[in-house]
Amino acid sequence: MVQDMCHRRPYTAVLVVPTGIGAAIGGYAGDALPVARGLAAVVDTLITHPNVMNGAQLYWPVANALYVEGYGLDQFAAGRWGLRPVHGNRIGLVLDQGIETELRWRHLQAAEATRATLGLNLTDYVVTDAPLGVALRTAVSGATWGTIQQPDALLRAVEKALAAGATAIAVVARFPDDTDDTVLQNYRQGQGVDPLAGAEAVISHLVVRTFQVPCAHAPALSPLPLDPKISPKSAAEEIGYTFLPCVLAGLSRAPQFVMTTAQGTALWADQVDAIIAPTSAWGGSAVLSLSRPGVQAIAVDANTTTLDVPAATLGLPVVRVASYLEAIGLIAAHRAGVHAHALTAQVPRLQVVGQGFPPLDR
Amino acid sequence: MALVTQFITLEISLVDAQGDLVAWVEAALAEQGYPLRWAITHVDPGSRMATVEAVVTVQS
Lengths: 362, 60
Known about the structure:
Chain A is an alpha/beta fold.
């Protein structure tokens, strides 16, 4: 959708599907990527995060999408950091010492494949000086969280990668294979909450908070036995030995973070036109920051989660839509300057000031 | 001293929250550690108390 950009300003939307909260769309193996593709077709710039774009072996190079790690997205949304697009990043691969030899080779081969077949730019890789020790938990809310026992080992390894010339960091940590069987089976059926997600977020957040560089994480796991009944939503994570390709593809053009406007041309939060997030998950930092006048806030009912924090409970106005299909339509209308009421069968009459229009949402 | 992460839960009053809610939550979390990841995961409509689940880091 190339337009004459001289006579209007670019339309920028932020798509958030928080990880680890059992989002019906986006809580599995990159199953929100089609949403990102659809939204990207009706905006000039789509800002979203790895959970949306990562499909393990699968990914899609959405030219006008910015791949922004969650901590970085929180800082961007709060107006503290800007996003500076790049032509390409040099990716430093950080591997957990706790990954066994054969699985390490699988990851290195995945990385080599992206170099030869996709032309990605990687530094030599770094192995952490101690096993990272991933631990998984589930919170009372049902959201998953987790951590690593050796965050300092992670940060030391990242420091080495940056010293070797990396401008973006891909971390691969060894995750436990002995996840609760019921939880894992649910996930493979496209239900329940991703048990790994919370820990993955902590890993990449640590890197981005400390070094202010793009980062994404891929868990290292042993392959699962074949199950003919797995859900299509989880299938992308069953077709290879690693989840690394999508991470490297995403990081290859992830925007750099800038801290001040003096650091060159960048996108800042005051240029955001719309935020789209699940209706029941309005309590995250980035979504709260962007829930302000001047930003079209769209809550998608179909994307149910384990949480129950709609915008109304926080006193924040949003437009609720039934589906991402409707969200895409609303964004297209907003971008075109068309009032959404004009697209309905009943166009309300003008009223005297003070009585206002009836709400569009449900 | 080693960096460690801690999972914490806070209750904050939306009635008392002044201005920027994000900054309000972060200030409350900062009393426990350096905030890394957080979200409001529940709101009691009656009391207007919000539950925040968070991961913070501390040096131990």
